[in-house]
Write a structure and sequence with these properties.
Helix content of chain B: 25-40%
CATH topology of the largest domain in chain A: Nitrile Hydratase, Chain A
Oligomer: heterodimer
Order of helices and strands of chain A: HHHHHEEHHHHEEHH
Shape of chain B: globular
Domain Nitrile hydratase beta subunit-like N-terminal (chain B): 1-106
Radius of gyration of chain A: 19 Å
Mean pLDDT of chain A: 95
Family (chain B): Belongs to the nitrile hydratase subunit beta family.
Number of domains of chain A: 2
CATH architecture of the largest domain in chain A: Alpha-Beta Complex
Organism (chain B): Streptomyces griseochromogenes
Strand content of chain A: 5-15%
Number of strands of chain A: 4
Number of helices of chain A: 11
Number of domains of chain B: 2
Mean pLDDT of chain B: 95
GO molecular function (chain B): nitrile hydratase activity; transition metal ion binding
Order of helices and strands of chain B: HHHHHEEHEHEE
CATH class of the largest domain in chain A: Alpha Beta
Structural class of chain B: alpha+beta
Largest sheet of chain A: 2 strands, parallel
Keywords (chain B): Lyase
Chain lengths: 199, 223
């Protein structure tokens, strides 16, 4: 097995990124406009707001919720969200008695079309290693203390299946509209390391 | 592949980092570039996006290249490795250019003749149809094979040899173990298998269930 480099001084990743960009651009192998387009897309238009819209709709529209749990990919596509790392999305519901939490122990697979790029804690070795061994302890460290009668199901994304957690609708939000619910749906709740916010 | 990337259940990483709600997508501008360049490098090196080959490149990074440079550092390093594998880049080309950028006088290696893999995905993405029926039905007890291949695999070490129950039959998909090495897509049925925490970690484990998606050839029947 080869590795990227031998012995010697390790140059900063930022500098090597600039070097690679130059080498590929000079030879016409990449187009800087395409590169900048990818960056802008993930900085501005693909993020957890997409998933929040899916969840708020499911909370207010029982028929949509049924479709979402039966075929997540299709129901999410109805709202216009699809693409790389979202080829097959399965939605699981958190309830008062079952709590799902998602991880990718082998890399950092994540449903980009609905949640954007993963946050740093999700990519961190401590989360990837520990959530599959001691999820209750890890969730408590992250601020989510679950009572002993709640069953935990950890979803390790080892193939191209991407999981999205449908969090419980917070109590006392019965009078809120779909639009008013969207800000309560956090990225962390849709991965399963937090509950949805309260108004 | 066994190695640093296969982290599930390993110890010694310390506490998890609490989420920061205001975390930017890219903490620094170079990270956005590294992300985009890694995606584009995959196309340049392979002729089409081969996510499995990219993941295998990540797995082959050494400790420093995988851990010390952080997540996007890891991505740019894997992109560079794919490009070196296909001789789009000469070994050391990126380091030489980086040194030039910071004012050192270094001779850059000559541009090599690329020898890219003869690779064309059969279709976009990884989902495929297969002619045979799934070998394992929902509710079936199955054991994850106890195997430790030197090449790419998506069977994590902590599940090998462990017994679980098929919870869902997922759509069939390209087999990463061969596709990562440009040895064919070999689409397989994929199963979400549910394991009990006691089966994985012993009688003292926290009580919980865990599911993982396992390709058909990773599984065997239990007696």
């Amino acid at each position: 097995m080869t590795t990227t480099r031998g012995q010697g001084e390790r140059l900063p990743a930022a500098l090597r990124t600039e070097a690679l960009e130059q080498l590929l651009t000079e030879r016409g192998l990449i187009d800087p406009k395409v590169m900048n387009g990818i960056i802008t897309t993930y900085e501005t238009s693909v993020g957890p707001l997409n998933g929040a819209k899916v969840v708020a709709k499911a909370w207010t529209d029982p028929e949509y919720r049924r479709r979402l749990l039966a075929d997540g990919t299709a129901a999410i596509k109805e709202l216009g969200f699809s693409g790389q790392q979202g080829e097959h999305i399965v939605v699981v519901e958190n309830t008062a008695t079952t709590h799902n939490v998602v991880v990718c122990t082998l890399c950092s697979c994540y449903p980009w079309p609905v949640l954007g790029l993963p946050p740093s804690w999700y990519k961190d070795p401590a989360y990837r290693a520990r959530i599959v061994r001691e999820p209750r302890t890890v969730l408590a460290e992250m601020g989510l203390v679950l009572s002993d009668d709640v069953r935990i199901v950890v979803r390790d994304s080892t193939s191209e299946v991407r999981w999205l957690v449908l969090p419980e609708r917070p109590a006392g939000t019965e009078h809120l509209s779909e639009e008013e619910l969207v800000p309560l749906v956090t990225r962390d709740a849709m991965v399963g390391v937090a509950k949805a916010g309260t108004p | 592949m066994d190695g640093i990337a296969d982290m599930g259940g390993t110890r010694g990483w310390g506490p998890v980092h609490p989420p920061r709600p205001d975390e930017p997508v890219f903490e620094e501008p170079w990270q956005g570039k590294a992300f985009a360049l890694a995606i584009l490098s995959s196309r340049v090196a392979c002729g089409g996006i081969n996510t499995d080959a990219f993941r295998h490149a990540l797995e082959r990074l050494d400790r420093a290249a995988y851990l010390d440079d952080g997540y996007y550092g890891r991505w740019i390093n894997a992109g560079e490795l794919l490009l070196t594998d296909s001789t789009v880049l000469a070994p050391g080309a990126v380091d030489a250019r980086a040194r030039s950028l910071r004012g050192e006088h270094v001779r850059e290696p000559a541009v090599p003749e690329p020898t890219r893999p003869d690779y064309r995905p059969a279709a976009e993405g990884s989902l495929r149809t297969v002619d045979t029926a799934p070998a394992f039905a929902v509710g079936r007890r199955v054991r994850a094979r106890d195997m430790s291949p030197a090449g790419h695999t998506r069977l994590p070490g902590y599940l090998r040899g462990r017994t679980g129950v098929v919870e869902l039959v997922q759509p069939a998909a390209v087999l990463p173990d061969t596709n990562a090495h440009f040895l064919g897509e070999n689409p397989q049925h994929v199963y979400s298998v549910r394991f009990d925490s006691y089966e994985l970690w012993g009688a003292d484990a926290e009580p919980f269930a865990l599911t993982a998606e396992l390709y058909e050839c990773y599984l065997e029947t239990t007696s």
